[in-house]
Design goal:
By secondary structure, the chain is an all-alpha fold. Helix content is about 80%, strand content about 0%.
């Protein structure tokens, strides 16, 4: 029914999620995508820690290790992230959107999506987890760049100059792309959760989604152009560390393992 609408806890959680998404949107307009997207994984360890205290959910030693690895990897990502924005105005954004490299990448993504949605998903989607994950992750190539583009275009909408009209049109187009991609993602995420374990899906989805978003952002915004070899290796190590932490938290959360039981079994063996 609708009794949850009278629950203050439900409203508190809903409002908190809305504020978090608004903050996420603002982050894309302020800092490089290559930093914001991987750091989104911090919601998993913090959520697990809060759930262990507030909801009394069990967090085993592997989950705690995963939380530690996620936080450590995030610190490494922040240290080695690009120090400057490569696209800061609407004119630069329009130039990047019409870049042949990005247009070619979008064409490849659209062809892959059509192939996956209309041919592969109906036949192999319920039995192969990578089909639904690939669809949702490829759509992320539109979601995150659109979000960042909307933030850049919105800066010129309320200015009284000839570019404000173009900024409004660009913003509306990006909003339409963003809305369509989100709707399709929700549909296939729900399909995946009906067929596969949510923990396994969440861990693999994070890694594939983040990788493809970073690829799309690298092609569109060229945020990697100012990153040296040391920073590149540092970010790769940080992302790998965060990914391992997410896998430990999500995939092994039902795994009954603790140091106390291990010590007892060793004592019995001796």
């Amino acid at each position: 029914g609708t009794s949850y609408l009278t629950d203050i806890v439900w409203w508190a959680g809903t409002i908190a999620m809305a504020v978090g998404q608004i903050g996420n949107f603002l982050a894309y307009t302020a800092v490089p995508t290559v930093l914001v997207t991987p750091l989104g994984a911090l919601g998993v360890p913090f959520g697990s820690i809060l759930a262990s205290y507030l909801l009394k959910e069990k967090l085993n030693i592997l989950g705690k290790l995963g939380c530690l690895l996620s936080c450590a990897g995030s610190v490494v990502l922040i240290i080695h992230s690009p120090k400057s924005e490569s696209v800061t105005t609407q004119a630069e954004l329009e130039e990047k959107l019409t870049n042949p490299a990005f247009v070619g990448y979008l064409c490849i993504v659209l062809l892959m999506l059509l192939l996956l949605i209309f041919w592969i998903a109906p036949a192999h989607g319920p039995t192969n987890i990578m089909v639904y994950i690939s669809i949702c992750s490829l759509l992320g190539s539109f979601t995150v760049p659109s979000t960042k583009g909307i933030g850049l275009a919105a800066q010129d909408i309320f200015h009284n100059n000839p570019s404000s009209q173009r900024a409004l049109c660009l913003c509306l187009v990006l909003l339409a792309v963003l809305g369509c991609s989100i709707i399709v993602q929700f549909r296939y995420i729900n399909k995946a959760l009906e067929c596969f374990d949510s923990s396994v899906f969440g861990a693999i989805y994070y890694v594939v989604f983040t990788t493809l978003v970073l690829l799309a952002s690298a092609i569109l915004f060229r945020e990697w152009s100012n990153v040296g070899l040391v920073d590149f290796l540092g970010m790769a190590c940080g992302f790998t560390t965060v990914s391992v932490g997410i896998v430990l938290i999500q995939v092994f959360k039902e795994f009954n393992f603790n140091i106390g039981e291990m010590n007892k079994s060793n004592m019995k063996t001796d």
